[in-house]
Design goal:
The protein has ten helices and six strands; from the N terminus they run αααββββααααβααβα. The protein is an alpha+beta fold.
């Protein structure tokens, strides 16, 4: 999500602490934001999120297989927060999704947007983010007593069923995996995988 791009790229910025060194970084940030805003498809946007390590995307890595310590696996780690808000807290009170609004507006103004534009954008982002929170079962993001708790192997056939809008093979390639030798992924939240696929559709492009 674009607001997270702001938050993670410019988290050290605030109204009182802007200095000359930080101002030098603004062109880089503007270029990154421009790439996001000019994305022509949800899939292109997702790959930009992975490339720049910002936004809402599958958090993945090749690590020791939690179901078999003698093997490695591609592992999808569930997101426990979205646009700076804790998913559990949002589900308890939807107003908690707005905790990053002021920072979003301030940083948007730094790159030339009006306050009204920024608030409208954040409202659209909030709707998408809330949908993602409600699609996440609480047990998927609770702290585990061991790495194997909640871990499930999802084979390629199942991944094809989950990803009806996105190409999961391109997600693998974005992580540098051109040929998956494991036959699938280990996931801690199949629900979040489906939620990501459901969110990255043309109708949500502006909000994403």
């Amino acid at each position: 999500l674009i607001s997270k791009a702001f938050n993670e790229s410019l988290q050290q910025y605030d109204e009182q602490l802007v200095n000359a060194e930080r101002e030098k970084e603004l062109p880089i940030v503007k270029k990154t934001i421009s790439d996001f805003e000019n994305a022509t498809s949800p899939e292109e946007l997702l790959l930009l999120c992975i490339e720049n390590d910002v936004g809402l995307y599958p958090l993945m890595a090749i690590n020791q297989n939690p179901l078999d310590s003698t093997e490695y696996a591609i592992i999808f780690y569930a997101n426990s927060n979205v646009i700076g808000a804790d998913i559990t807290e949002v589900k308890e009170n939807v107003n908690n999704i707005g905790t990053g609004k002021d920072k979003y507006v301030n940083l948007s103004k730094k790159i030339g947007k009006t306050e009204e534009q920024a608030k409208e954008e954040f409202l659209a982002i909030e709707y998408v983010a809330v949908d993602f929170c409600w699609a996440t079962p609480e047990e998927d993001i609770t702290k585990k007593s061991s790495p194997s708790d909640g871990a499930v192997f999802v084979d390629d056939k199942k991944l094809e069923e989950i990803f009806t809008n996105l190409d999961y093979k391109k997600i693998e390639e974005a992580y540098g995996i051109s040929d998956n030798p494991y036959g699938g992924w280990i996931t801690y939240s199949e629900s979040q995988l489906k939620a990501i696929d459901d969110l990255y559709i043309p109708e949500n492009l502006d909000a994403l």
